[in-house]
Structures are given as C-alpha cells and as structure tokens.
Design a protein that fits this description.
Length: 504
C-alpha cells in the first residue's frame, strides 16, 4: 500500500511520464501534412483572382469549431469573397453534397471535418470546373475523391489521429505561410483544444501538447466566447470541456441548425456571447429532455450480446442518437449502436471502447450498411438490422476485448485529500489514451448509502476515513462493495475538497 505522497508521486512519475510534452516550436511544419502547400497556393490564387470561396463544415462540435476557426482566420487576413455553410442534420444529412453546392455558388470549395468519402461531389466539381479541397480526419474508403485531399489518415503525416479542427488549423497555418501573413495562430488553439476533447482524440504527444497549450489559453482567453466560458465555469480543464462545453456546442447541431453555436463562437464581446450562450443552454435543456425519454424507450428495445449492444426503434430523434449511444456505452462498457428506422433503413450512431476499431470492424458489413467516422465513433445506415446484429457480434467474437492497462494504485485512505488532486493535476491533462489513474482502497466501513438522480439509477455513499469521503457510483446500485475489485477516481467537487467516483 502506498502511504505517502512522496511514494505516490514516484509511482505516478514512472507510469505517466511515457509521453513527452513538445514545445509548440517543434510541431510539424504545415507543409509536412500532404497537400497543405498545394491547397494554400490554390486558395491564395483564388484570393488574388477574387474568386468565390465556400467553406463546408459539419454539424458536430469538431465540425462547428473547424468552421469557426477557418472563418475567423479568413476574416482576420482580409479575405472578402468567401462564405460558409454547414449541412442541416435533418434536411441535408452528413457532409458535403451536390445539392449544397447547387445552393451555394463558389469557384473553390474547402471542406472541414468531412468530405473524405465524397467521390460524387469531386466528380461534380471536376465537371463544373470548380476546385475542391477536402480537409478531413475520418477514415478513408478504398476509393478516394479526385480532389486535393488533406487528411492525416491518407498521408504519411507524423500523427494520424488528430481532430478535424487541428487539420483546419494546419491549413490556415499553411495559408499564413504562403501569404506571408503576420497573424498569430496560437490563440486559435482555443478552438483546437476544445475539438480535441470533444471528438475524443487520443492524447498522443502532439495532441497532448496542443491540449495543454489550449487549456492555458482558455484560462486566459483571447476570444470572447472563451472569456464567457471562463466566467461561467471558473476554470476550464479537460473535464469541463467534455462534460459542459462540448455538449453545449453539439446541442445546436443536434436540435436545430448549427448557426446558434457559430454565432456564439463568432461573438465580438462577452455580452453578445452571453446572449448566444443562453440560446445554446435552452437547446441543450431540450436535448436532455428528449434524451431522457429516449433512454427509457431504448432500454426496452435493446439487444445485448457478449460483444455489443444494439438499440433500435422507430421515430427516434436523430439528433440525440450519438449521445444516447455514449450513455449506454457508459453503462454496458461494450460497443454500442443506437439506430432509428427512416425511409426503409436504420440510421444512427455507434460508439466504441478501447481495443475496438469500429470502421475496421464494419468493413466486412459494407454489403448491409454504409458508415463513416473514426476509431470510437461512427455514423451509419443499416439496411438489414437483424443481419447487422448477428454479423457484428460474430466479427467481434473473433477478436475479444483485451483488458485495459489503465494505471491503478493501492493507496492509504489518508491520501484522500485535496493534495491528491493537486498531484494528479501536475500530470494532466488526461483523456483518450492517457487516462487518469484510478485507486484501490483497503476495506472501509460505509457510513450511509442512497440512490440519487431523477431515475434513482446512481448511488451515493460515504466511506469512513479520517475525513469521511463521498463516493458517487453512476449507473450502479450497490448492495455490497467489493473493495478487492473497486476502482476509484479522485475528482473535484464544488462543496468538498475531494470526491471519489466508482469506476463502472
């Protein structure tokens, strides 16, 4: 058992310092990302010729932030002949499409966070004499669009798993170099850091470096929207982004169009940001109400096997299926799909766990489904739901999940103080691929226990320690607690120095 903070710090250092933080000056040059130089020159030429440029984004947080970043940069460098659009989730569906281009006149089109499967759009642009630049980070299919493609998944870039907003940042950095602009792109990492957490990117050395810098910027922000967020939340860390900011931005694309989120990100002062923040809050409240009702219904239409969970129904709100899949994933800890029947097929979202590459698993099912996304999150359309359930289960059973290797430390209850949080913070930020350490404890008396939450599906109890500690167990009801198996996370709390979360 680890009994002192000195011992614990020694253990943390040996387990967590496997990722070296990089200085920003050591980031790969923009032109190391394939086609950034060519795309920058094409954009510069379009600017010189005063051609019309169109930016086409995506309706999730990463796509919204990517759009906002590029639009803001274009405004700052003085580009006049450009516009932007984001597909409407319910009217347009995912990604750039020919109807979108028919509605928006442009000579040069730039996608952000989408487009890697848009072969039909590329053919249309060729026929119309338009230049198409695809910036994306999602997994490509076998046939690539005939366009200028900037995607770390396609090229030999040093880091393949970066968010769409980071790709957009690199394109802007390339354009800055081409135009010899003096604009500082560092503050734009406020957008990128939020997108990195929102899109669950693995915290490799590159992503972690960007996130650490972005978090420091968000706590001394440049942009008005970030100033308002700091005012609302007091401080901004990776958990604040994941639990509060990302859902707020996503609510716009889930419940309506994305303009409310974009208006928030484009705010010129904190008063304007407050107005748009309130609009997003209203949408997020609406989203929560719909999600709550659908969660109950989905539990009645849920098909669970040893390898996956599939919930499907009719008339379910498409905007909450992804977050509903996340909610079920938290409870069942296995790949989860939530789909609704529409126009003869089932459309929805899938969410994965460590050790499962969803696009790779779905490749063998291309005869019965269309899909796109990245390792842990996909959007998909299924044409035979029964076959899908059976065959996905069979595929996953051939590749059973490996047990995770998250760092776990057996500690004395005397270490459960605010000093523990301060120590953990020194090794953060944490996230995908770089998880916060969990702890085991010796058997301790439980002083009180009660069910909490509107659905009474969470448990709160208190452990008898030198200073009694509150523990929250989400989606768990406990008759007894097996301390040999229990894993705890130390978290911040508004009313106490420290609170523990019990790992599902």
């Amino acid at each position: 058992m680890i009994g002192t903070f000195q011992e614990l710090e020694s253990h943390l250092a040996s387990h967590l310092q496997n990722i070296t933080d990089l200085p920003l000056s050591s980031l790969p040059h923009p032109f190391e990302l394939e086609n950034v130089k060519e795309a920058s020159e094409a954009i510069a030429q379009a600017i010189q010729k005063q051609q019309k440029i169109l930016i086409v984004g995506d309706y999730d947080a990463d796509g919204i932030l990517s759009t906002a970043l590029m639009v803001t940069f274009f405004k700052q460098i003085g580009i006049k002949h450009f516009s932007y659009t984001i597909p409407h989730r319910f009217n347009d569906g995912y990604g750039i499409s020919i109807p979108i281009l028919e509605r928006n006149e442009a000579d040069l089109i730039i996608t952000v966070d989408n487009g890697i499967t848009a072969t039909d759009v590329a053919q249309y642009c060729k026929a119309q004499g338009k230049t198409l630049i695809i910036t994306d980070h999602h997994s490509p299919k076998e046939i690539l669009p005939d366009a200028l493609i900037i995607n770390p998944q396609v090229s030999g870039f040093a880091q393949k798993e970066i968010c769409g907003c980071f790709v957009a940042w690199y394109v802007c950095a390339g354009l800055k170099a081409t135009l010899q602009s003096s604009i500082d792109l560092t503050p734009f990492l406020e957008f990128v850091s939020i997108a990195t957490i929102s899109d669950i990117m693995p915290l490799t050395a590159l992503n972690r470096t960007i996130l650490k810098k972005g978090l420091s910027l968000l706590n001394a922000p440049h942009f008005a929207f970030a100033q308002l967020l700091l005012q609302k939340y007091g401080s901004i860390d990776e958990e604040c982004i994941g639990f509060f900011i990302a859902p707020l931005l996503n609510a716009s694309g889930r419940m309506a169009d994305t303009q409310k989120a974009l208006d928030f990100l484009f705010s010129q002062d904190i008063h304007e940001a407050q107005k748009h923040f309130e609009a997003l809050q209203a949408l997020n409240t609406q989203r929560k109400e719909i999600q709550k009702a659908l969660f109950i219904e989905a539990k009645h239409h849920l098909h669970e096997t040893r390898e996956c969970v599939v919930a499907y129904g009719t008339g379910w709100h498409e905007g909450v299926l992804g977050i509903l899949a996340n909610q079920l994933l938290e409870q069942y800890q296995k790949p989860t799909f939530v789909l609704t029947q529409k126009d003869g097929s089932y459309k929805g979202s899938g969410r994965g766990v460590d050790g499962v590459d969803l696009p790779a698993s779905l490749n063998a099912l291309q005869d019965i489904c269309n899909f796109g996304g990245h390792c842990k999150a996909v959007g998909l359309e299924v044409f035979d739901i029964e076959q899908f359930c059976t065959r996905f289960q069979a595929i996953r059973s051939q590749h059973p999940l490996k047990q995770g290797c998250d760092p776990v430390f057996h500690i004395s209850p005397t270490l459960l103080t605010a000093e523990l949080l301060a120590l953990l913070q020194r090794y953060g930020p944490y996230g995908e691929g770089y998880p916060q350490p969990s702890f085991t404890l010796p058997p301790l008396p439980i002083l009180e226990q009660k069910l909490i939450g509107k659905e009474k599906n969470h448990t709160q109890f208190t452990l008898q320690t030198p200073k009694p500690i509150k523990v929250l167990a989400f989606f768990q009801t406990l008759d007894t607690l097996d301390f040999a198996q229990a894993r705890f996370y130390a978290k911040r709390d508004a009313y106490q120095p420290i609170v523990l979360h019990l790992k599902p």
